[in-house]
Structure formats: structure tokens, C-alpha cells
Amino acid sequence: MAPPPIVVFDLDGTLADTAQDLIATLNVVLAQEGLPPLPFERARDLIGAGARPLIQLGFDASQVPLGEERLETLYRLFLDHYHRNIAIHTVLFPGAIPALDRLASGGFRLAVCTNKLEEHALELLGKLGALDRFAFVSGKNTFPVFKPDPGHLRLTIERAGGDPARAIMVGDSKTDIDTAKNAAIPVVGVTFGYTNVHVSDLGADAVIDHFDALDAAVIRLMGA
């Protein structure tokens, strides 16, 4: 039998609203360094870039220099604290679970392709009650490459047992959209994620404001 069609999701800012827990972790790190907290509004749109840019932003805001060695130490501290506090305030975006279940009922395989560490992604999805809906979850450290390298998405599809010729990516950021385009896979952009450039300006093949609209977007792109 031919492999099934597949929808591959980013995690932070796409499936889950992780901003509060990530920024809380950032501010724990900054407090340890004697620096003031970074306001939520200033840090939110940079979440998709990863922990290191967030830490650098916190230092830049206080005009305090940060060397590479110290950044790596603080990055490890960030990861450790975040892993222990990964789902204090984090929730799935409205409509995510019903949308996943509708796609699965329609014969789609589901997977996650995130630049979060794999162990963090698995832990978070488990705590949010969504892990069992995905055939495969890949993180930044799962393969030798990661987004926006197209290999990350292609390998995720392969490991999930999906059909790369009938695949759709769903994401919120330039990284996600670039990854899908690099892999020649259609991409749905969500407007509720973390990006300092509106997702409609990033070249997604479809844009949705709520998961209730995902089914129609996926079917349209799959037909095209």
C-alpha cells in the first residue's frame, strides 16, 4: 500500500503557546546575572529564534556585554530550568486537538518537526496530552540537520511513514516556511505564533487564523 498523506507541525507558536514558560525561564537566567527581567511583549516574537538569541536580547537590553563562553553556560542553565518547568503555563492553541483528530480521521498521518530539543518536545507533548496523536516527533538534535535545512522535514516524514509527495507543513515562522519551501512541500502559516514579520508576508501557501480553518487549507493545498 502507498504511504498515507501527512501533515507535519512545528511546535512552539504553532501547536503550543509556550511563550510564558520560555520567557519566565529567560528571566530566571537574567536574574541570576543580576539583570532586570525582559518584558513579555519584547521577548515574545523572538522565541522562534531559540534560547541563545533570547539570552542575548536580555543582555543587550541592559547594555551588558556577553561573551560566547558565558552565553553557552547560561544556555545550559536555561535548558535545565526550562525542562523542569516546561508546562507551567503552556497550553495548546485553541482548536488544536480537534483539528488533529479530524485530520487523523480523514486518513492523514501526523508528525512534529521542531527546533526544540527532542526530549523537551516529547516531554511537553506528553504533558499536554497530545503525544499519542503523532507518528513521529523530531527535534533539533534528532538528526544531523535541523530547520531550515529541508533534510529535517524530509527525514521526519520518512520516519513517520508518510508520503513526501502528499505532505503539508504547518508553522508560524520564517524558519518553518523556508524549511518547507526548501523541501518543495506546501506550507500553512498560522497567524497566532511567534514572529516579528507577519506570517502572511513570509510566503506561506495558505494562512489561517485558527485551527478550525486548517482542514480546508490542507485539503486545498493537497488538491493543488
What can be said about this structure in brief?
This protein is an alpha/beta fold and 224 residues long. The chain has helices spanning 19-32, 40-43, 51-61, 68-84, 96-105, 118-127, 150-160, 174-182, 214-223; strands spanning 6-9, 16-17, 91-92, 109-113, 136-138, 167-171, 187-190, 206-208. Strands 5-4-1-6-7-8 form a six-stranded parallel sheet, with helices on both faces.
Q: Would you give an account of this structure?
A:
This protein is an alpha/beta fold and 224 residues long. The chain has 9 helices and 8 strands. The chain has helices spanning 19-32, 40-43, 51-61, 68-84, 96-105, 118-127, 150-160, 174-182, 214-223, and strands at residues 6-9, 16-17, 91-92, 109-113, 136-138, 167-171, 187-190, 206-208. The strands form 2 sheets. Strands 5-4-1-6-7-8 form a 6-stranded parallel β-sheet, with helices on both faces. Helix 1 (19-32) crosses helix 3 (51-61) and helix 3 (51-61) crosses helix 4. The longest helix has 17 residues, at 68-84.
N- and C-termini, Cα separation: 23 Å
Could you tell me the mean pLDDT? 95
* Topology order in helix (H) and strand (E) letters: EEHHHHEHEHEHEHEEH
The residue fraction in helices comes out at 40-55%
Principal-axes geometry comes out as: elongated
Give the percentage of residues in beta strands.
5-15%
> Number of helical runs?
9
